[in-house]
């Protein structure tokens, strides 16, 4: 049973540095079309008190031959199924950027409502709340032609120009990106009647990104709610200076949360 659980977790999670004595875990969800490497690296950088689990979705990296997920429920079922035993062991937090903010929200919702488990902190980046008017009225991108899609990608910044100029790489990259956007665009989430979390929630965003309704995220928690704006556009978190600010912030809050948890 333990072996089966471990194999299931290794399929879904990339963890560069196992830390059995860590006081908390940080579960990170990729942006649309993204892999797990960016976040998995954080495991080498963060203090030994935090173990980083970077979520790997089908259709990319070691799961390249698996079909993409078609809806949010498939992501939630897989992530919760793989991580549930571990999430019961010690405090955990969630971090997600853009598409990852939606998946973080959906996983937190399921963990609370189905399993009565709650993170000690949720970090949401670069996205409007899924039930906000701004999100509901956002144009659909997944059905654009490849040319129009690339124009849009170029306009939001953050994608390396050499990637956009390489047809072979694009052929591999675009299907994953479009599949993830399809999931977001078909994810229906009603306005909340009441907050389902009590933990702190922090929203992060790039000052030069298109505006997002960050304040709407306040509705998910009765706990502290903070917004932090950093220099840069949609992929502001790839900047090394911003990354240091984010990791220092995450570390401070998780180490504090662990004391509260006890």
Key phrases:
262 residues; alpha/beta; Rossmann fold; seven-stranded mixed sheet; 10 helices; 7 strands
Can you summarize this structure?
The protein is an alpha/beta fold and 262 residues long. The chain contains ten helices and seven strands. Strands 1-3-2-4-5-6-7 form a seven-stranded mixed beta sheet, sandwiched between helices.
Mean pLDDT: 90
Q: Structural class given helices, strands, pairing?
A: alpha/beta
Secondary-structure element sequence? Answer: HEEHHEHEHEHHHHEEH
Fourth-tier CATH superfamily name: Alpha/Beta hydrolase fold, catalytic domain
Low-confidence stretches: none
CATH topology: Rossmann fold
Mind describing the biggest β-sheet? 7 strands, mixed
| N-C termini distance | 29 Å
Integer-rounded radius of gyration: 17 Å
Q: Treating each run of at least 4 consecutive H or I residues as one helix, how many helices?
A: 10
**Total count of domains:** 1
**Shape-level CATH architecture:** 3-Layer(aba) Sandwich
Q: How helix-rich are the residues, as a percent range?
A: 40-55%
User: What's the total count of β strands?
Assistant: 7
How are the strands of the biggest sheet laid out side by side?
Answer: 1-3-2-4-5-6-7
* Proportion of beta-strand residues: 5-15%
Multimer state: single chain
CATH class group: Alpha Beta
Overall geometry: globular
Keywords: Fatty acid biosynthesis, Fatty acid metabolism, Hydrolase, Lipid biosynthesis, Lipid metabolism
Family: Belongs to the thioesterase family.
GO molecular function: fatty acyl-[ACP] hydrolase activity
Domain Thioesterase: 25-246
